[in-house]
Amino acid sequence: MVRYRFETKEHDLFRKTLRQFLAEEAVPYYDEWEQNHLIPKDFWRKLGEMGYLCPQVEEKYGGLDLDFSFGVVIGEELERVGSGLIGVGLHNDIVVPYIEAYGNEEQKERWLPKCVTGEYITAIAMTEPGAGSDLASIKATAIRDGDHYIVNGQKTFITNGIHTNLAVVAVKTDPKERHRGVSLLVIEEGTPGFTKGQKLNKVGMHSQDTAELYFEDCRVPVANLLGEEGKGFTYLMEKLQQERLFVAISAQIAAEDMFELTMTYIKEREAFGKSISQFQNTQFKMAEMATQLELGKTFLESLIEDHIAGKDVVTKVSMAKYWITEKARDIATECMQLHGGYGYMEEYKIARRYRDIPVMSIYAGTNEIMKVIIAKNLGI
Hints:
single chain; 380 residues; alpha+beta; Butyryl-Coa Dehydrogenase, subunit A, domain 1; Butyryl-CoA Dehydrogenase, subunit A, domain 2; Butyryl-CoA Dehydrogenase, subunit A, domain 3; 3 domains; 4-stranded antiparallel sheet; 16% strand; AcylCoA_DH/oxidase_NM_dom_sf; FAD
């Protein structure tokens, strides 16, 4: 079951154990979670009990002190079940690393152990109704008032928004500045003035809770400032690389799953007296998709290695995020077409995959923004 050249026997055992856990604790209930538009909190706690939440966290805070390669294994196996589990990966590999990297010792001791057990579910709140790709234009403010900040503003499209106990929120501590005015505050559930909106009704990823967050004269202790005031934009840019890599990995696994579903279907489905896998058009389509998948996997393998080694991967991550998510979207279309009318039925997993995949080219920075970054780094 070893998938990449950097994996060891430990990764293999870790993957097998996790896959078995998910087969028992997630797969039988996933359709129900999709219908309820929510994953139950006890599933998060079970993940925590098994060591599948934030394994990279240091042992002194309750983690396993593992590197990002184990996070890759977790993200891939969750995606094999369904894209609605992406919030777990966001918690593990996107939000908690902000606390690890920029939090002080008191903050780490206060928050990390609960993130590891699943008692706390985290969210990252950047996007606003009027600010998506242009993060420097956010309007949420945090004005200093003694030992507190007074936070006012609204965030939208927040993954884990309903369940979140702990949100890393991008705010303007200096509204007159753009990039240098952005800071990160950790705002805990129950803080007066912090409320959650309704679950947003998305096209796909139904089991993943997504919500708006509201802050009205919300008093947040200065002790909850993450890192330095005015450095928030820099922190976001640093951590967005791992987020974009995570999205590319998820899209790759989703595409591979769609391919496998379609391979099974075309061998079983008959038309005009023979399996549709025997038609040349079907063979050509499958050959094209297999090639795209192999290219994506090879690219990711190299990219993951470089990221773990601490190399500058900004350009390559942007390439992978845009190219793999677009190919995954193309594969979704081709696979649904090969399923014929059955592919349009909710009882077939390909229908859910078809709904889930488009947003991957939008969040964590749109693919258009990825191309802007690539072009800039090419010197044009």
